[in-house]
Amino acid sequence: MNPSGKLIIFSAPSGAGKTTIVHHLLKKVPELEFSISATTRNARGEEVNGKDYYFISKEEFLHRIAKKQFVEFEEVYNGTFYGTLRTEIERIWEKGKTVIFDIDVEGGLHLKRKYEEQALAIFVQPPSLEVLKERLAGRGTDSQEKLAERFIKAEKELNYAPQFDIILKNYDLETACKDAEDLVVNFLKN
């Protein structure tokens, strides 16, 4: 493992805008490369295996956990696992790039604790829980039951914000993207 490699972690409740911000940064900051997470959930919409996620079976995921192939993983929703493969970080560091994560809140905190000074952990704060609920419902990708599960999780996740290095307020997406760019560029300089 490259001990001098850096990681940038973007975490937030689902619907806070972290994915949009990370995609913006990937276009603007050439030193970054996206860490593709592994998951047991099915692909949504236009998602592509090996680009958006590594879609693997629950059995395969559990096998890889047993072989200690994940730097972090968790059962985010009942029966649905997400995790970061150690080989994914190494792959990006070997190219001389900085790893950028779009990851759930608890996974982000695990990575920050594991990599400490090498990592910049940013929590994307939505304007309010109500706005978050509107955004999630507006996606139209989840059942009412799944939405209710996401709302409960989001409420809990907002309490973790103070444990991150920085809280990035996403009240206006354009401003949040610009602020994120400044934070990342400054972190990469040090």
Topology readout:
Blueprint lengths: L6 E5 L6 H11 L3 E3 L2 E3 L13 E3 L2 H9 L3 E8 L2 E6 H9 L3 E6 L1 H11 L3 E7 L3 H11 L4 H15 L7 E4 L3 H17 L1
Parallel strand pairs: 1-7, 1-8, 2-7, 3-4, 8-9
Antiparallel strand pairs: 3-6, 5-6
Kindly describe this structure:
The chain is of the alpha/beta class. It has a single domain, classed as P-loop containing nucleotide triphosphate hydrolases (Rossmann fold, 3-Layer(aba) Sandwich). It is 44% helix and 24% strand. The chain contains seven helices and nine strands, in the order βαβββαββαβαβααβα. A five-stranded parallel β-sheet has the order 2-7-1-8-9, with helices on both faces. Helix 1 crosses helix 7 and helix 5 runs antiparallel to helix 6. The radius of gyration is 16 Å and the shape is globular.
Rounded Rg: 16 Å
Question: How are strands sequenced across the largest beta sheet?
Answer: 2-7-1-8-9
Biggest sheet features: 5 strands, parallel
- Poorly predicted spans: none
CATH domain class name: Alpha Beta
Overall body shape:
globular
Keyword list:
190 residues, alpha/beta, Rossmann fold, 9 strands, globular
Please give a quick description of this structure.
By secondary structure, the chain is of the alpha/beta class. The protein has helices at 18-28, 58-66, 86-94, 105-115, 129-139, 144-158, 173-189, and strands at residues 7-11, 32-34, 37-39, 53-55, 70-77, 80-85, 98-103, 119-125, 166-169.
